[in-house]
Design goal:
With 537 residues, the protein is an alpha+beta fold. It has eleven helices and 21 strands.
């Protein structure tokens, strides 16, 4: 018996799992062929051939079918940090032409790009956690990586169900901020756009810098990467982050010159809500992205929290540091566990401001009535589970881990359905706990605040010829909106009459101007209280 157990452990440790005869699927099929005698590794990237068989919705895909949406070269490597311990690897790759140049494609119907990820869920046996999180992110009005389920074959070896997805980067269809240009000290080209992250020092890091308030909080440039930045650009963004932290740490942090000057409050609310809902064990301190657009003609582009990333060990799927509990706040993680990375102090400090806490409470209640409603989440989980049913059966034949503990499962179901039910039960119980324990008072009629809390939304963005705007009004008055192009030329102007304190929504139609970026300004009593960028596609 001991010999049998030892043999099984060795099989798992060395990644020798059951082979599967794979001929066809109701999911798209991705086929990768490596050069003779070579294998994919962590570094360097390997140039391979990739073909995609995707005959369209409702049409079955066969390994003998011709490649459809892509038939060409990629350069590919393993991706991930701790996830590389698992036998089912994740991959990062770029599509390229025969000369090695970037070759943008619309992979499985996702917007055109050349930079992609093949994510192989392993400890998340539902195969759903990341997909669910990105879907919630989009429903909340933010960018979330597009995802497509597929089945992967490498050199004739069936590798299971994978998720093709967008890598986080600056792009019109991804993190839609201005791409950096050569800095000009006489205008605003220096001010954006940047994507940075709080993360651990693993993999290819390049330059990083520590928080002035905690050397276990480490910032890194993500896109552009540090070696793509000039010294003045890198210094600008590092100093901006340092100023932002200093403002929150200051005694006047809750005034108009404090955190309000630096952060997009709604994005911080939503980032907090998703981190806490998932009680992500690495939340806030690892794979936590921030981005900043270029300053525009009429507004100071602020730090935006997100996009969301890396939720495979979330929603109760980790058995350490209380991550499997539905009670307690994840932002207090440092009080529970001592790791080499810490949670930035500002997530807790912001809650000390009643206006921030009240806005967070309002946002939570709004989302609980919509995308975070238990029925809405459960319906999405069930629909995805139904969609991948055939493929996930094969996946767990290839990787027979149902009923087997995998680092760091907080729950081990004996069937796939038990794992699925655990995910739904965890989210429901966690949501109820947040309902009952989130501080703040969702009352928009606050007593004459010194500032106008930033609480509004425009959608869809990018738009076609129609735009909606929802606003919270804290002081009553005559309201109007102005939309200009980047030169200040007026494209649309509309008045809404007298607005009372509360929330209001408006529809703007017949916006028949050209594709491009535009600035909107929402005013009450001729004072601009909300502004931002909207993209016409």
């Amino acid at each position: 018996m001991k010999t049998l157990i030892l043999s099984l452990l060795l099989l798992f440790n060395f990644g020798v799992f059951a082979q599967v005869t794979f001929t066809d699927s109701d999911l798209p099929i991705v086929v990768i062929t490596t050069p003779p005698g070579q294998v994919i590794v962590d570094d360097p990237r390997l140039v391979c051939h990739m073909g995609v068989i995707d005959n369209g919705p409702g049409i079955r895909n066969y390994m003998t079918d011709p490649f459809t949406t892509y038939d060409g070269l990629i350069d590919i490597e393993y991706r991930g940090s701790t996830s590389q311990q698992y036998p089912k690897k994740g991959y990062g790759f770029e599509t390229q032409d025969s000369l090695g140049n970037n070759n943008p494609i619309t992979l499985l119907g996702m917007p055109m790009e050349h930079d992609w990820i093949l994510y192989g869920p392993y400890p998340d046996k539902t195969l759903i956690r990341n997909v669910l999180t990105f879907d919630l992110t989009r429903k909340m009005g933010h960018y979330g990586s597009a995802t497509r389920y597929c089945e992967l074959v490498i050199d004739g070896d069936y590798r299971g169900v994978y998720i093709a997805m967008e890598r986080i980067k600056v792009d019109g269809d991804r993190v839609n901020i201005e791409k950096l240009h050569n800095p000009n000290l006489w205008d605003d080209t220096l001010t954006g756009g940047y994507i940075v992250k709080v993360d651990k020092l693993t993999g290819e890091v390049g330059y990083s810098w520590e928080s002035n308030f905690n050397n276990e909080v480490v910032f890194q440039f993500h896109d552009p990467e540090f070696d793509e930045l000039s010294t003045i650009q890198a210094s600008y963004m590092e100093n901006y982050i340092n100023e932002f932290e200093a403002a929150i740490n200051g005694s006047q942090f809750a005034t108009a010159s404090g955190y309000h000057y630096y952060i997009d409050q709604r994005s911080f609310h939503d980032f907090f809500i998703l981190q806490e809902l998932g009680r992500t064990v690495d939340g806030y301190r690892s794979s936590s992205f921030l981005h900043k657009d270029k300053d525009g003609f009429s507004w100071n582009a602020k730090i935006v929290a997100g996009p969301m990333w890396d939720f495979n060990l979330s929603y109760g799927n980790a058995d350490y540091c209380d991550a499997d509990l539905t009670t307690g706040w994840q932002y207090n993680f440092d009080q529970i566990c001592n790791f080499s990375t810490s949670i930035p102090f500002w997530w807790k400090k912001l809650l000390e401001d009643p206006h921030y806490a009240n806005g967070l409470k309002c946002r939570w209640e709004e989302l609980r009535a919509g995308p975070l409603h238990t029925d809405s989440i459960n319906n999405f989980i069930d629909s995805v589970a139904n969609y991948v049913e055939e493929g996930r059966i094969r996946n767990f034949q290839r990787w027979p881990i149902i009923g087997v503990y995998v680092n760091w499962n907080g729950f081990v179901g004996q069937t796939y359905q038990e794992d699925l039910d655990y995910l739904k039960t965890y989210i429901e119980q966690r949501s109820i706990w947040i309902d009952n324990n989130l501080s703040g008072n969702c009352n928009l009629a606050v007593d004459e605040p010194e500032f106008k809390p930033e609480y509004h939304k425009v959608w869809p963005n990018p738009m076609d010829d129609e735009l909606n705007i929802g606003v919270s009004v804290f002081n009553p008055g005559e309201a109007s909106i102005l939309i200009t192009d980047l030169t200040g030329r007026i494209m649309h102007e509309e008045t809404f009459g007298y607005l009372t304190i509360g929330t209001h929504a408006f529809n703007l139609n017949d916006l028949n101007f050209s594709r491009g970026n535009y600035i909107y300004q929402f005013s009450v009593n001729d004072e601009v209280i909300y502004s931002g960028k909207v993209i016409k596609r």
